[in-house]
Structures are given as structure tokens and as C-alpha cells.
Amino acid sequence: MKPIVQISLDVTDIAEAVKLAELAMRSGVDWLEVGTPLIIAEGMHGVRALRQRFPDTPIVADLKTMDGGWLEAELMAKAGATHVVVMSQAHDETIKCVVKAGKDFGVGVMGDNLASSCMIDGAKRLEQLGCGYVIHHIGFDERNGIAAAGGRMPSPMDQLKDVVDAVSVPVQAVGGLTLEQAIETPKFGAPLVVLGAPLTIDNDRFQAASGDIEGALRKICDHVHGYGDVVIGGSVE
Fold this sequence. Notes:
8-stranded parallel beta sheet
């Protein structure tokens, strides 16, 4: 598949999210993500506002679903989301419910392996249960807590190639990546490039970062879109 650039709208205000999304779309971003902070703050209203403003753009609702899978997916699908996120740590039945809702409402299901005891096994399980995408994710608290205790901060890059090789669905790497690392993930066979902090979101305050965001985004989108096709379970052709 062609590499995709997705921007994570991890703000807590709809107006700010729409403004940032407009900037992102002008820069060449492909997918919009209603990040978890915006989901918590505004819920379906945030998804609806973005769908109204961008009627044809894929919108990912980062629900991080752990229970009530069918209902949560239904709510976001009806609000206009094209993709929803369920966690690998959820019960099998919850993941199955989200997958069923995905089929019922025509939305893609992204499975997130955050906090799996084995990230590779977590990714495999998500695919086996029907998720159409895998998010290989090292969490915010996990990264920062380990670093604060004097340990080496973990990175999705540590096992990205192993995760990619273990599944036959598109993979997305998330969690503390530098911009340079993020835009190189297609080379490892992960075609879904996510941009968030520090380029577009202030890492501590969950608001838009300062600087020439639009110019930087345009250069990044041009770079990512310049790759050839990514072989799922492989690398850039």
C-alpha cells in the first residue's frame, strides 16, 4: 500500500482541533485522528465536527476500547469515524465485538498492542481476532515513568520490524518517536505514519505546538509520499 500520513489531534478543544486539521490537510496529511484527549473532552461531538468540516477524509477515533466494544464503535461510526481503536489487553470478546461493529458499520478496526506482555504476540492476537490494522504502541506513561526511574526509555522502533514480520496487516508505530524516526517507519514495512508530539502537539500541555507547523508538515508529507509501495509484512519496494 501507499504510505499514509496521519495527524494525531491530541488537543482538548474542538475549535483548536479543526484549526489544526485544516492546517494539516493543506499540508498534504491523509488521515485525521481524533486523539484520546479530544475523545475524552468532546466525545462524539469532536468526531462530528471534523466529519462536517472534512466530509471525505478518513477519521480515526482513538477510543482505546477495553469494554463495551460494539457500542463504542457504533457511536463513533455514526458520528463519522472511519476507523476505531481497540486494545490488545481487552478481552477476546470485546475485540470480537469491535470487529463485528466494524463489519456492521463499515469502519476499519485498528488493534493497539500497548502494554502487551509480548508486543509481537499481542500484535498476532489482534490480527487473529480480526483487526485490520495493528498499532505498535509504547505508552506515554510507560516511556516517561521508566526514564524517570533511570531506565532506558523504550521505543516502538525496538521491535517494529519483528511486529511487521509477524502480521499480514498494515502496522503503525506510535509512542515517543522522533520526527526522523516516524517518517522512516515505511522503510520497516509500517506504512501508516503518525505525526503528533513534538511537531504538532505540545507534549506536556496537549495543545498545538508553536513554530512553522504547516511548512514542516508539508515537507514531511512530501517525503513520506515519495516512498514507493510498502509491502505489508515487508518493506518499501
